[in-house]
Amino acid sequence: MRAHILVIDDEPVVLEIVRTHLASSYEVTTETDPEEALRACLKQPPDLVIVDVYMPEMDGLQFIFAVKAVHPDLPIIAMSGGGQLDLMAPVDAAGFFVKRVLRKPFQRSELVAAVADALSAKDAAG
User: Fold this and answer.
1) Which among 25, 84, 87 has a CA at the least distance from the CA of 54?
2) Rounded mean pLDDT of the chain?
3) Whole-model pTM?
4) Residue 4: phi, psi to the nearest 5?
């Protein structure tokens, strides 16, 4: 059975890029609305979540905290295009709760390696 990955980003083009890079190996679901993604994730968690840190209304950190409160072992990869130094503090803080932080734009190889690492760590943990 293929691992299910939920990808959340307010930019549809980013979702399509991630889906394109991962769809041959994984079941990929995408969502532009983090609140809708949170409801779905709390009901039936995927094997891995990839979430953008900076989104309007509910940001990625709020999503991460809410999911981790219910599913503390769910692996999460955060991604961010916030390249300004003052915007990176929340991204760095996310590192305490996520398997990896990908800085946009990232290479396909970085994404694939991060996903494989996060899923293999989950499998090893049980």
Assistant:
1) 87
2) 87
3) 0.88
4) -100, 125
Q: How many domains does the chain have?
A: 1
Token pair for residue 58? 């509910």
Give the helix/strand (H/E) hosting 77.
Answer: strand 76-80
Residue type, 3: A
Distance CA 54, CA 9 (A): 8
Q: How far apart are CA 32 and CA 36, in angstroms?
A: 8
Q: Give CA–CA dist 74/64, Å, rounded.
A: 10
pLDDT digits (tens, 9 = 90+) for 44-82: 999 999 999 888 888 888 999 899 999 999 999 988 876
Residue 24 has pLDDT above 60, yes or no: yes
Determine the structural domain holding residue 90 and report its residue range. 4-125
Q: What is the CATH number of the domain that holds 111?
A: 3.40.50.2300
